[in-house]
Structure formats: C-alpha cells, structure tokens
Amino acid sequence: MSGKIEIKSAEQAIACLEEYGSNYFKLIPKKFRTPKVYHAAVKQDNSALKYVPEHLKIKVCLFALGHKHDSVFMYMPKKLKTPEVCLAAVKCCCSNLKYVPKALRNQEVCLAAANSPANDLEDILKYVPKGFKSQVCKIAVQKDGWLLRFVPNALKTPEICLAAVKNNIHAFTEVPNSIKSHVEKLLG
User: Fold this and answer.
1) Which residue would you say has higher pLDDT here, 8 or 64?
2) Fewer Cβ in 10 A, N or C end of the chain?
3) Which of 34, 96, 41 has its CA nearest to residue 65?
4) CA-CA-CA-CA torsion sign (107, 108, 110, 112)
5) Whole-angstrom Cα distance, residue 96 to residue 180?
6) What residues contact residue 46 under an 8 Å CB cut-off, 6+ apart?
7) Contact 25, 48 (CB under 8 A)
8) Bigger pLDDT: 76 or 13?
C-alpha cells in the first residue's frame, strides 16, 4: 500500500481493515473505532484484541464467537472469561474448553463442548472434570461412533459402547472384550 490513508467513517475503516489487515488499525481515528470496527480488526487477526478497550472486549469476543471466529477466545484475558463467554466459546469450538478457567468447567460448558460441531474428544477429555467425562463421551460417540477409540477403557460402559456402535458399526472393534457379548445382546 502506498500513500496516506484518510479514514472518514467507520465503514471506510472496516473496508481498510478488510483490505490491508489489522496492522492498519492504529491509523483509524478514535472517533471511528466502533464495536464493528474492533470486530473487523479481530476478525483479521485475533491478536488485535489488544486494541479493544476493556469495556468492549466481552462484546467483541461474543460477536466474534457468534461468527465462528473460534480462536479469539484464547487471546481473551482470564478476568473477562465469564460463564456466558465460556459457553459461547465451547459452542463455537470444543477445543476452546482448554482455555476455560477450571472453576468454570461446569456440566453445561462441558456438555456444550461435546455438542459443538467440531468434536475433538481426545483433546477435550483432558480438560473435562472427572464427574462429567462419562456424559461427554456418550454425547460424542452418539454423534460419531468411531470416537469410541478415544474413550478411556474405564469409561467404556455397555451404554456408551452401544451408543457408539449404533452410530457406527465399525466402532464394535473398540468395545472391550469383557463387555462385547453384552453389547451384542443389547443390539438385538
């Protein structure tokens, strides 16, 4: 880009960010730095979150998560990770569970992570509190039976294995020998 950019509106600021990237954010006059402009900057580069004023960070992050910009959550300061923001983050992408503060990894957040579109069970199980792992595994294998291969053997109950096999018959190879006959009977 050559020459000087003269920004005269928020719309022009957004167009500039879309064309040239978030590095040009510093050129935008403060009077045009609206929540939409901040979102456009974060959309270009999640690290632009550093330019967003504290009082707008949650709003910008929720907007970004709502538009499937899932990696913005990892750049959020911990103090801004409210229950509402954490829930939106894991609904957007289950892998965001690793960035949810431990104290906020409740049943609702963990089950939302299991129900999110991209389900990386092997990765998220590391971050699910013990009391919710069985429920998370069941939801995951109901969506994709082949994920049974990532369920720890201690959690492979007949109910979870049955749910996996009903979704994908090939998951039967991952059913522990000790319960295979029981799962076969349940299949009918």
Assistant:
1) 8
2) C
3) 96
4) positive
5) 34
6) 69, 71, 72, 74, 75
7) yes
8) 13
